[in-house]
Amino acid sequence: METAVILSLGFVVSFVVIPPLMGLMKRKGIVGVDVHKRDKPKVPEMGGIGSLIGLTVTMVSASVMEPNMAKFFLTFLAVTLISGLIGAIDDLRPLNAKVKPLLTMIASLPILITKTYNPRLVIPIVGRTRLTVVYPFMIPLAIAIPSNAVNMMDPFNGTMTGTCSIITLVLLISAIILNRGEAAIMCAGLLGSLLALWYFNKYPSRVFVGDVGTLSVGAALGAIAIIGRMEVIAVVAFMPQIMNAFYGLSTIGRLYERREVARPIRILDDGRLAVTTDPKAPITLARMVLARGPLTEQEAVRVFMVLSAISGVLALLTLYLMLVTT
Fold first, then answer.
1. What 3-state DSSP class applies to 99?
2. Total number of domains constituting the chain
């Protein structure tokens, strides 16, 4: 019941907050160009602030409803807000590609300070491990990697919000099966706020998420994986984002910002999307999706959603293996 209440609260608050936020961003001139449309419309940016507000309300409310779990909720919220702040700074004054991952590592401090983690990682088939010394050093990476991987995979309208909603749903189901009440409530708050943001961000986008949204959502998912002790499940669910980041970094050979490299996607005269002919463009998951031939933006987004759904099913199979080996 509490999970349903928190999910609904996150959705309603974000759904109410985002429209006036869109108007504010438009008036302030904080807009982005939708490069995959022929008419290149200008769309309000930083819509992720709306989902952050929704998530904040849900976690504060959950802390009041379940004071014995407040430590987990507030730690999770702190990680998300710190990452969101870094993203907001990047939206307003772009950060260096090498600096951003280092800054997102700072967002892991609340988890390290409150010690809301369990170093006994459960690996399918292997069983329970003891990483008492190593695990704390892995936590900054467990926040920085998903936050930046999500940031790198937002090529089309609704891609990030849609795929991350699927990941969050998978973690929510896993948390319920594992009887991890605190993780289930965190997932519910994130999923509710994400679904509201997806409604405005889906094709054709009325608002862009911005780095404030991508970095905070990625960090939130990383925090849920750590606090909820669902690390391996999260890694499997994250496979599309991990693959996208790996392909991009391996082809360019360094950390980079989208504005620094040639775009991997071009628009045809009929409005469909196709792979660029520029050999300097990075290989991304979007480019691989379009390798077989041109697609409309909506068709490309559906492929991303299917890939995330497949990864989600594999993540749930991983959960099953964890249960039978522990």
1. helix
2. 1
- The neighbour count for residue 92, using CB atoms within 10 Å, is 13
Domain of 11 in residue numbering reads as 2-234
DSSP per-residue string spanning 91-135? HHSPPPTTHHHHHHHHTTHHHHHHT---S--EETTTEE---TTTH
Distance CA 233, CA 247 (A): 22
Contacting residues for 197 by C-beta, under 8 A, at least 6 apart: 14, 18, 47, 48, 50, 51, 161, 207, 209, 213
Contacts of 288 (CB under 8 A, 6+ apart): 247
d(CA 125, CA 232) in angstroms, rounded, equals 12
| 285 lies in some domain | no
Question: What is the pLDDT, as a whole number, of residue 126?
Answer: 79
How far from chain centre, in Å, is Cα 51?
Answer: 12
Query: Three-state secondary structure along 170-206?
Result: HHHHHHHHCCCHHHHHHHHHHHHHHHHHHHHHCCCCC
* 204, 213 Cβ separation under 8 angstroms: no
8 A C-beta contact, residue 80 and residue 216: yes
Confirm whether 13 is domain-assigned. Answer: yes
Q: What's residue 277's pLDDT?
A: 78
User: From CA 66, how far away is CA 122, in angstroms rounded?
Assistant: 27
Question: Would you mind telling me the total number of residues written for the chain in this entry?
Answer: 326
How far, CA to CA in Å, does 21 sit from each of 48, 53, 128, 257? 10, 11, 46, 26
DSSP class of residue 267 equals E
Structure tokens, 243 = 């693959």
Peptide bond into 140 cis (omega under 30): no
Mean pLDDT, contiguous 10-residue spans, the chain (326 residues): 93 98 97 93 98 98 96 99 97 89 96 96 82 93 96 94 98 97 98 98 97 98 98 97 86 62 84 86 88 94 98 97 84
Does residue 148 sit within a domain? Answer: yes
Q: In this structure, is residue 325 part of a structural domain?
A: no
Radius of gyration in angstroms for the set of CA atoms belonging to the chain, rounded to a whole number? 19
